[in-house]
Amino acid sequence: MENLWQRMSAVADRAIASGQLVIRPSEYEIISQGGIDFVVRYAPSVAIEKPTTASPANPFLTPDPALWVETLGQSHHLLLNKYSLLPLHGLITTQGFVEQTGLLNLADFSAIAMVLDQVDGLVFYNGGPLAGASLAHRHFQLVPKDLGAGVLPIDAAVLRWQQDSHQSIYPFVHRVHWLPNWQPDTLLEAWQKLEYSWQACNLLITRDWMLVVPRTQASVGGLAINSLGLAGGLLAQDPAERALIRRSGPMALLHQVCRSDQ
Within 13 Å, how many C-alpha atoms sit on residue 178's CB side? Predict the structure, then answer.
C-alpha cells in the first residue's frame, strides 16, 4: 500500500510532466551557528518569477486538480505547492475561505493529525504577513523532516531542551511543548498553552513536539523569513541575500525578526 509520500510523489510526477508543478532548482550549504546546523538554500530563480496580475485569484478555493492529493476530513484539502524547492511540499488548506490569522481550531488540528498519522513529517504555519504568510486563506504546509538535506536542523536542539528544560533552543522568545501523541485534542491543547496564538507567530509541529515563535517583522535586510527559518532552513534569492546570511549568520538574522528576551 502506498504511503502519503508515495502518493504525493506520484501526483507530483504527473503535475511536472503536464507543466502544472514547478520544482525550482537550488543548491544548499550548511552554516552552523548557535548549536544548529542551518540548511541555507540558494535559488535565484525564485526572485525573478513574479505574479502576472495585481490581484490573483485565490488558488485554494478552486484547487487545481493536477495538484490535489486528498481530502482531509470535511474541512480541509491536501494539495501540492505549485512552486516549490522540494519535490514533496504539501499544503493543508481549508476548503472554504478562513482567515489565515484567525484562531486555529480543532478542525485544523484534525487535518494535521490525519497527515501525521500517515507520515513523520514537519507541518508548519505562518501566522500572518509578519510571520511570512503570503496568502490570506488558511493554510498549513507539509515537508519531509530532512528539508531535502538529510536532517531537520532544529530537531537536535529540541531534543536537548527535552532532556534539560533549562536549556533554551533560541536566544529569543519561544515556547515548546513535548507531545505525548499527535491526536487533534492534544495538538489543540498544546497550541492553547503556548501563549502566542493571538499574535503573528510561526508554528512548527512534528509527531514529537510543537514549537511557536512570535514575530516582530517579516524580513531583515531584504531576506524574507518564514517558519522554515525557525526550523533551520533559510532561502537566499540573490547573491546579496546569500552574502548577508554568510556574513551575519542565520541565528543572528532570526534574532532580528523575533521578540527579544530583554
Answer: 10
